[in-house]
Request: fold
Amino acid sequence: MTDLLKTNIGRLRIVGFLEGVSLILLFFVAVPLKYIWGYPQWSQIIGTAHGALFILFILNTMSVAGDQKWKFMTTTWKVLLACVIPFGTFYVDSKILRHIK
Reply:
């Protein structure tokens, strides 16, 4: 884990994992708690955390794209799209990010 923190790509992978988990928690835990059982506080807490992680993911993606000299039309857009699709960040991590040195 500490090796991942030493590189931009490692930090992107960690933020991507956390962003993916927060999106899943938001969709499948916080939203049902809010709209089915009337507990909006979880939606506020998880939604705020997810928003911060979403922004960090986008900023880190742009940083890595610059470092790796990614072309937007071949790689960058795929990584950016992943953060709005449930399980997308996990897929991009396994197919793209894990293989970058």
